[in-house]
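Q: Could you fold this chain for me?
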Amino acid sequence: MPDFSTLSITKDPSNPRVARLLLDRPKRLNAITDATPREIRAAVDWANADEEVHVIVVEGAGKGFCGGYDLELFAEKHIDHPCQQERQPWDPMTDYAVMKRNTEDFMSLWKSPKPTIAKVHGYAAAGGSDIALCCDLLLMAEDARIGYMPTRVWGCPTTAMWTYRLGPMRAKQLMFTGDTIDGTTAAQWGLATEAVPVAGLEEATMRLANRISGVPRSHLAMHKMVVNQVMLAMGLEQSQQMATLFDGITRHNPEGLWFRRYAQVEGFKAAVEWRDSGRPIPEGDEARDQVRELEARIAAKP
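A: Sure. Below is the predicted structure, expressed as structure tokens.
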């Protein structure tokens, strides 16, 4: 079996036609590192190369599915990263190249000729929701939560899957508010295939995976290709290109820079608490003024 640093993939012992891709950084809520997108693609490639495998289940170790990007590293620490550049002027195409590659790696789940099922408990937040929504089917615990909170500041979902999975009105509601919804609501809205009590999530997921696994691989691939082609014809790739560019802008415009500087001074948890509280987020000249004050506090630190 492949050896990875942020995840693992094995065949289910009860049905080797089902591959189990486990996001495996439970102490960090399976947060995404620079390595995670690449490892997801490699794991999907491994499953697709194995003729015995017919379906891939994606799940998270520990308390939840995936808490998004590991932003305590990228937001709180003063590092120069292609996606959070300290140097000026900001180079948008450097940012875009990195994030587009991440998006394409997540999309390996969508492009895989073998169906993919996200099994979500706890949180599928921000980048974690990107991973879940790139899967073909989504089973959730009734009390699980999914959403993209950084739409309030410092993020734009690069996979742009919300509109294609929910429709424009519901997608706008979640993008405008940054709210999360539970599994029951996700199923009612048609985002989740099914929502069940958390104690029954494994059974429900494997019931569906086992049912799918009995279908010939070629038939699964053809049916998936037909449905995916509809989404492509609707403009999915163009939407992702725009969303990935906008994601970089949200992290480098005055509001995004304020969020990062506030996190560096007050801590990431305090920045997230402000972001999600509903308090007005500083913008424009107010954000620029606060950035200068926060940078002065950073410079004054011993």
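A (continued): The chain is about 50% helix and 15% strand.
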